[in-house]
Structure formats: C-alpha cells, structure tokens
Amino acid sequence: MNVETTVEMQRSLIQWTVWEFQFPKQRQQQHNPEASTTSSEGKVLTLSVTVSPHRMQVKLLERMPLAAEGHLDVMPVYVLSEGAGPGAQVPTDLTRIPIPLIDISADHSNKLVKGKVICKGPLMSLAADDFVLKTVIQEEDSQPDASSQNQSINVVLFGAMAKHFNQAGSQGDVVVASGFTVAKSSTVDEDKLHPCNLLLSGDDACLYVSTCINLSLVYCIWKIYDEFITSHRFKPNNSIREVKNQRNLDKHFDIMSSSICGVYAVVTVHYKYIIETFVHISVFVPQVSRLTPLPDPISPLANKRNATLSTEITMVALKCKPRQHFTTARQQLIQHDSNSHNATAIHTTQQQITQHNSIGETETERVSRRTKVPKYTYVPLGDLKAGSVVNVYGVVVFFKQPFKSRGTDFCSSLKITDQSNQKIGCTIFCEKLEDHPKIYQIGDIVRMHRVKTQFFNNSITLVNTFGFAVVAFDGAVGGAVEPRTSSRSFHFDQEDRRTVEELRSWAASQTLLPPVCTIPLSAVQPKAYFDLTCQLLAKAPVDTTCTLLRVWDGTRCPRTLLNVMVERDVTEGPSSFSKAKEKLIANVLVYDNHMEFAGQLKPGDFLRIYNLRAIPGSSKVPGLTSSQSEEVDHLAFHLHGGTAYGRGIRVLPENSSEVQELKRALEAFPDNDEDALSDSELLEIWSTPPESLDGDTVECSSGSTLEETSRLAAGYHNIVPVKSSDGHLALLDLSAPFLFRGRKRFYGCKRCSEAAVREPSAEGVQVIDEKIVAE
DNA sequence: TTAGGGTTCG
C-alpha cells in the first residue's frame, strides 16, 4: 500500500531550483516484518522548521538519517500522478467496457469501467469496521443527447474501500473500477439509472480514483513537519482528508506561500509517502545569489529539474486488499517517477524559465512594456541626500496605520530599510485613505515615487510630495509579487519584480525584523500586546469613549474571555451566537481615537487589530456583568487610545492571503452553521418566555405581515412572530409553535406542541398601535 | 498644515 502525492510547481516559483532527495526503502515489505530492520541507508535531509501560527521558516541544515517509524498505519490508498492517467495506471490486461454495455449475464472478470462520480452517498456502517457506500458514476465520454440511456450506474463499495472512498473520493472525481461483480439493481424504477449495479467487494475489487487534489507547497511542509518531523509517524489518513479540504488550488498556494517568511529551502512540491518503498521529497531553493547551491545533490536528476508548470491531477486508487495489484501499481509508480522529468512539463533551461516568467507577467506589465513608460530610478536608502525628490524601495520595519492628523489629512508613519541597512522614517499625508501605503505587517515591501528628503533630528526622513504614489508588496520569500495599490495605472516591470524579490531575500537573511506578534486567540497570553487577525461578528457602542467589537479567528482562547453586555438594540450584527461559537468570540474594547474607524466597520469585515492588549481580570470595564466582576481569571482585550506601537485597525481585503488563511480557519469551525437548530434548542427557545432567554435570544416583531417578518428575520437571530391582542402581544398562531431564524422557519407539531404565551416585558417593545396592526 | 514611533484610564 502506498500513498503518493504530487504537487505542481506553481508559476510564482518557477525560478526556483529543485533538488531531489530520495529515501529508498525506509521499510521493507509491510507483509514481511522480519525484513523491516534492514536498510535505512537512504540519504535524508534535515530541516529546521520553525512554525508560528502565521509564519513558517524552513531551513535546510544538513543531511542525516531519518527515523522512519510508524509507516504501517496507512490506509490502503494509492495516490498516483495524473501524468500517466487512469488508463496507464490500471493493469493493462483489462479492457474497458462502456457503462451502457454492462450486462448481468456477461463475464466482467477482465473488464474495467470508467466514469465520473456524479453522486456520492453517505457511508453506512453495517457492523464494526464494515461499511457500505453507494455512489453513482456516469460514463465519462457520454454524449449528452445520443443514447443517453443507462449512462449512469450505481456502484456499491463495501468494507474498507467504502470507508476510504468516503474520505478520499468526491463528486466530480473520475474513477476506474476493476474486479467488480454485476448485480441487478433493485432501485431502477426509482432512480432510473442503469438496471445493473456494480459491486466492489473482496480481494479483486479495485477502484482507482482520479481526483483534483493539488497540494500547496506549504501545506506539504506542514504535513512533513507535522507528521514526519514532530511525530515521526505518518497519518496519511488525515493527510488525505485534509488535503481534500484544500481544493482552492492556486489561491491556496499563494496564500500559504506568501505567509512564509524567511524560507531558505522549501520542502516538497513533489513528495510521496510510499510505504514500504521510499519517501521522496523534493526541495526547492530560491535562486538568489545570496544562497549558495547545496553541495552535490543526492539525486542525479537534481540539477535537471527546475519546475513543472502543468496542472496535475492526482490519482488515488483504493483497494480492499492491495496485495495482488500492489506490485504492479508500485512498479508503475516507480517507473512513472523515473520518467516524470520527461513526461511532465519540466523545464530544464534558464531560457525556458525566462519564457515562463514573461508569460507570468501581469497585464500592467505588458501594457507598460508596450507604452514605454519612462524608467524610474530608485535611490538606495544609504545614498539619500537632504533636499531632493526621489523614488525609493524599502522593507517596512515599523508602521502605523493611517490616522487622522490635526490638519486635513490622514497621516501614515513608516520606517523602512534596505540593503544599505539605513533605517529611514517616512511620513505620508494624504487626504484619502486609499492613497496611503497598504501595509499589513512588518516585512512588507514598499515602493514610493516622489518623496522628498529632509533632515529632522540629524537624520534623513522622507515625506510625500506632489505626484506621490506608493505600492506595497507582501514580503514573503517565494510568494506572488502582487502590487497592492489603488492606483489605476502604475509602472511595474521585471526589474521591479526582481527588486522586490531581492529585498525579500535580503530581509529574510537579516535579523532586522522583530519577532512575529500576530498570534491567534488560542495563543494569547495575559498582559501581552499582539496583532489579531480576525473577523468582526458584531459591534456595539459601549459609552462615549469605547466601542465593543465582537470578533473571532476560529481558535479558542484557553482563558475565559471577558463578557461584555450591551443593549441589544444598539448592536450591529447578531446580538447572540450559538453557545459553541460564543466560546470563540473575543470582546475587544476599542477606545478613543480608534472609535471613529471602528464606527465604519461592518460585521463580516476581516480585520487586523494592531497592538491589541490582553488584560487579565479587570473588573472596571463598562457594561461588565456583575457575576463576572468577581472573576479574576478572564481576559479583556483593549485597543487603547493613541497610535503608539502602530496601534490601530485595518480592514484586510477579501483577496489577501491573510483573509484566505483566516477563512479556512473559520470554515473549519464545525458549528458554523447557525441555521441548524436542534429540537431541544427549538424547544428551549419556544417554551421559554422571550424576556428570560438570556435577555437576547428572541426578537419580537409586532403587527407585521409574513413577508415583512421574513425580511426582518433575515437580520435577527430568532424571531417569534406575534400579533396584537387587546394591546398585548400574542402569538400569531397558537395552534403550533413556529420560529423564524434567519431565512429558515421552524414549525412545531400541532399535536405534540404546547405553546404558551407569556407577555414580554414592556422594555424595548413598542406599545402596539391597533391602527398600525390593522394596516 | 498635519508628524516627527516607543504601550497601558478604560
């Protein structure tokens, strides 16, 4: 059994050089345990991987033997690369039979069927460790109109195969089945599918799954870090499942790679877990002059490989009992691997790389090439002289988000540096926020046009002047070079790209950057200052100096978080969340000058809050509940007034790598679907008078139509429609309980529900005007 | 014009 995963080399990394390392025979045959002690002669590289929640640093140190333990707990999955395609992977002695031609009376012992998964049923458990799963596959090459009969067939998987397919397969995958039996379909009248079913069970049954898994570079590092280095145990079961959650291919890659900082060598892109044979890891090292190439790469292929640009599809083959097909598959796998530098799109010359670089250029670059924009010159920061107007590049070592000055403009404050090691302060005044540099974190790179140099306190500073323009870039080595600017036209060419990349590499080699202070809620320490990347869920004014922001980042702070009660009708966004979600929500109190900016935020916005303070056990917070004032072990989050240490808030754009990363974390939260309302919850809400539901669970609407109520319901957590009855509130329909939650409506059963109406407290509820009700 | 980094009232 083996697992092999292939990751494509992405465009933004094509100038990287690949070294390959192969670890032959870490373990001998799984079924031959005596042999497993032999041979760990495979040469291995050692990695130093430093991982913090938002950054990762991988350093190539030296080579040493790698303890390869725990290889045997692998689920029977083959992941084969697309290069060969399904046809090449399956045994050649089998012939393909089109789905419509499958017939119960024919002999299928040497046949295979190929089709696309159009429906995947749930995994059903028959007994402990015995499963069944039904899926529907459709003849892949079928014409939509011509002879469309019986193009789709039920495939029933049994045992471990069902379980593995449940994890590894999904709708849209292309599968090849062999070793199946054919049975009469009992559901043909209902599903109108093929009159036969394919049954995949027993030793001969085999299913090859071709899926569009595409691992990100960094994801692989994570896996290697996680499974290989930390625990020395493979958990391919997990990796397959998790990988399949990472289908957002290019984006995912960009995000992850741009969140790397200071990468010296990146492992993977083409790695294989091959149990019993070898582990195979490729190393990509950026071609920057500072880095000397690794001495004598182990693999003879090493210098030949540079990059592969093609989209690859990963093949997964599932087998109940792999023994019989295993040898074939493995041999093919190895063969495929040794040929892959021919078979896949690998570029071996600098010329080809250059070609791809130019293919990779942006529209702007092409435009600027054609229209001959005048060339900019950039003055190194060490060569600045007072009294001139210059263009500069620099790495951000300090920044303040734009803040309101006493004059007419917003003011940004930066400190930048470059290879000259000069640190230069910059002050930028612009009326419009969008004209300010879009700096998200220290290490970002800025290019500024038309800044004037002036002396202040014995050093040169930069201030923007007429015609000022700024573009910012992420500072992560290997990440996409995407200019952040609101400018419609700006010059950007290959030289700019190179400058950015050189600055990135240089910065990565320096220790000039302060340690990362962006941490998730789960890692917050009392008294710490930190930057928080989060999503705003709701906000509410607390008093004249303070606004409450309710935020989350998908992680849970191990400490009790401060609970701040505010009046419901001043809350923007939902006034309450599910219990599980509430546990993840941090209440951030934003003071003074930050209130104005906070006022413009909308629930749903993705934010980075800079220099947030985690304060333990305060009891003097406005709105604090009396029960909590006793508590000492809670954390409050304060964004204090002022802009010291870059204190402030920034809305992160939806397409930024930071937000993409955050979104993945939030999507992983299992209870994200607030629409799901269990019977007991419904009962709880229903049978409890509104005013006693923790004060904020139920909204009452009065005298509205169904349509109005529905519209209203979209904006509230729960709505129980009521009507006016003698000036009091009454349920619209007493025969059955119903509850509106967002777009969903929940109805109780007439027979078994007992609806009780209690009069809500008058506070916050309008006195009902009979005329309005009548209207 | 404005700011010219350097924590904390809450």
From TrEMBL:
SMART domains: Telo_bind. The keyword DNA-binding applies. It is found in: Chromosome, Telomere; Nucleus. Keywords: Chromosome, DNA-binding, Nucleus, Telomere. GO terms for cellular component: nuclear telomere cap complex; nucleoplasm. GO terms for molecular function: G-rich strand telomeric DNA binding; telomerase inhibitor activity. Residues 378-508 form the Telomeric single stranded DNA binding POT1/Cdc13 domain. GO terms for biological process: regulation of telomere maintenance via telomerase; telomere capping. It comes from the Eukaryota. InterPro entries: NA-bd_OB-fold, POT1, POT1_C_insert, POT1PC, Telomer_end-bd_POT1/Cdc13. Belongs to the telombin family. This is Protection of telomeres protein 1. It comes from Scophthalmus maximus.
